[in-house]
Amino acid sequence: xxxxxxxxxxxxxxxxxxxxxxxxxxxxxxxxxxxxxxxxxxxxxxxxxxxxxxxxxxxxxxxxxxxxxxxxxxxxxxxxxxxxxxxxxxxxxxxxxxxxxxxxxxxxxxxxxxxxxxxxxxxxxxxxxxxxxxxxxxxxxxxxxxxxxxxxxxxxxxxxxxxxxxxxxxxxxxxxxxxxxxxxxxxxxxxxxxxxxxxxxxxxxxxxxxxxxxxxxxxxxxxxxxxxxxxxxxxxxxxxxxxxxxxxxxxxxxxxxxxxxxxxxxxxxxxxxxxxxxxxxxxxxxxxxxxxxxxxxxxxxxxxxxxxxxxxxxxxxxxxxxxxxxxxxxxxxxxxxxxxxxxxxxxxxxxxxxxxxxxxxxxxxxxxxxxxxxxxxxxxxxxxxxxxxxxxxxxxxxxxxxxxxxxxxxxxxxxxxxxxxxxxxxxxxxxxxxxxxxxxxxxxxxxxxxxxxxxxxxxxxxxxxxxxxxxxxxxxxxxxxxxxxxxxxxxxxxxxxxxxxxxxxxxxxxxxxxxxxxxxxxxxxxxxxxxxxxxxxxxxxxxxxxxxxxxxxxxxxxxxxxxxxxxxxxxxxxxxxxxxxxxxxxxxxxxxxxxxxxxxxxxxxxxxxxxxxxxxxxxxxxxxxxxxxxxxxxxxxxxxxxxxxxxxxxxxxxxxxxxxxxxxxxxxxxxxxxxxxxxxxxxxxxxxxxxxxxxxxxxxxxxxxxxxxxxxxxxxxxxxxxxxxxxxxxxxxxxxxxxxxxxxxxxxxxxxxxxxxxxxxxxxxxxxxxxxxxxxxxxxxxxxxxxxxxxxxxxxxxx
Length: 799
Description:
By secondary structure, the chain is an alpha+beta fold.
């Protein structure tokens, strides 16, 4: 008989103690107690307008899921639990069969054939148990007042400096009733590489039963077929097969691999279907001068990482669908991103995520799930981590996009720099995972990827924060200094840096149930999780503007604008150092709830002004006025020579043109050219550069802006269904011209271009794409109200 796998997803009931008493609710599987309570109308959705306060009781509530499962017919029967979050006890017909405490791994139990079984899963509330373990085991420090590091649960469900505390529980991945007889494939691990210019495929099978013959079929633009034996590892050479190439280096060619288990009658009893790509990955960590490279190499080519950091896309990750992933991966592809780092305080994403990156040629850096904390090294935790990592490495091995495993996020830095020694009192703190267990598992299962023990880390210095090698995190710019300070850094690989700003006006006003945003509003502040976040935003505004903005559209535009400038300057600076710096991975791309955070795209999918700054900075060709002297750096990361006429326009502090110059420019492929501006620009004012269709502009001085000429322009709008086409005809210099349709629209809206620099007598056209015709009509009627610029901002009354 062929293996039968049937998902168990109906008839579930959630039994939970609520503030109103013990209650039962219909339950959805996969799901969580939060989403079941949302569906029942007990709580609001924290991703839209629910609050932590109304849901705080859930963190301390035990819960039970029940259903009845029909089990009939011949063969062996098993229940496969792909993911239980987290402290679960599974009982069948009243008998305890399984106790778990790791949401990042799967479990299997055998069951006897019966007409039906009563399946019950009891979940302990995570917070009380975590507190109890902290009392038993002693303090393992982390930056938050939440003991998230005592068992293997998504760390950010205990809250983070950009996300809410949920502390949820539930059956977050499918339960499958599996029936088999003569044989079953428990796992198929596919590892690809290129050895001596020949693509290779290593196939490791694990299974049970009498059937032992394995057939391997490879299809695509080339085909091959091989045979192997169950519970063995075989490596096959595939000369002539095309390579998977990362974005910018060719096509990301994929092949389908079907692994079949064959019984003694020649019948297929089980099979696994996965896609692979053939590529060779290594790190270039060669020495030069007193520094060392840190470059990701794929097929012998250095991939300069234009990257973003990715956090869980929903507080309840079971809700993220393939369509959700596809929308975001396509969005990242549209802004020239070629690298994504999956951060270690979240989850190993579903195969859908990596499938889409495979298809797009986007390389992936995957953290093992350790973040900003010391972790116990008792035998129980070591066993859980080993099982979890073994499963993750095996499951993700076929994905060519995954090029780098990392031991964890900021755990090494925490041990060195965050005063852990006193609370640890000599206890082991997790180093065994990063330097022994994880790299050894990779050696055993999959040697085709690079591995680093953590980020940040250094190979030239004992101090992991040394910038001359390894990967680097830059947070003092946001925490203490202006974004211009990015230009003082020369990292080997900028793996984390970012600047905080408000999500969309529409997203935040919905979340707090108000029509206005006020930075002094305590309710708005509940959506700012960064330490002293509102004060740091205010300090950033004070560094940029003489006037003080604290509420309304002026504050909102100013705060988003400063975040966008920080993103632009940071990304462009690191790209301008491409000889010594091999990547910039912006913190962060996405949000999981309505927030003031470092994200460039908020939880509703709205693009912040910083998203447009990232798009500009990640183009293959970039212009950047760099440093205090505003030298013009021309970066050509394309494969063609950049040959065009350069125009330089110098303006005074009011925006009046003082001088225009032009000259022919030629920049070789994958190189840069620098033009000094010293002696050419005044102490105050603005400088604009145009080379071909690329334009950049920057204030000459870092001093706060006090004045700028008012906008002298005609603004017209044409309505076409759900699209509004806006044309501006300017008679004056307009800086940072942006349209903010979210101020009036009810649903998500996008704009074709933002932060435009418009010179006198120029005409620019921008398209606004609304979700509904009704929103488009509102936008069309409010064009003058939603049109903002630096000119308008500094002319606004301070408030």
